[in-house]
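does this look right to u?? zinc ion version
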Amino acid sequence: MECVSCKNKENLTFFSIKNNGLKCENCAKSDKSVIRISNASLYAIRYIVMSELKKLFSFNIPEESIEELKLISKIYLEEKLEKSYKFEKII
Ligand SMILES: [Zn+2]
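got this back:
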């Protein structure tokens, strides 16, 4: 996986709603739609992206990462479905 802007493979600690992908710390600074993600969530996203569907039912992630992933999914889906939605509401 790499930064959607600069292709950097290091410090991918942000998810950009605008660009549909991970961003490094540098690129995240100029993107207001980024969400900071933990290593556990990054690992989970990587796992989901790279796994075959049948494997999705057999992995464990920490409870706090599940909450984080729920939040990211919610923001992402609402943004993509173009519902009227204020980003500030959840922060
Ligand atoms: Zn970058």
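Residues 14-85 form one domain. idk if thats expected tbh
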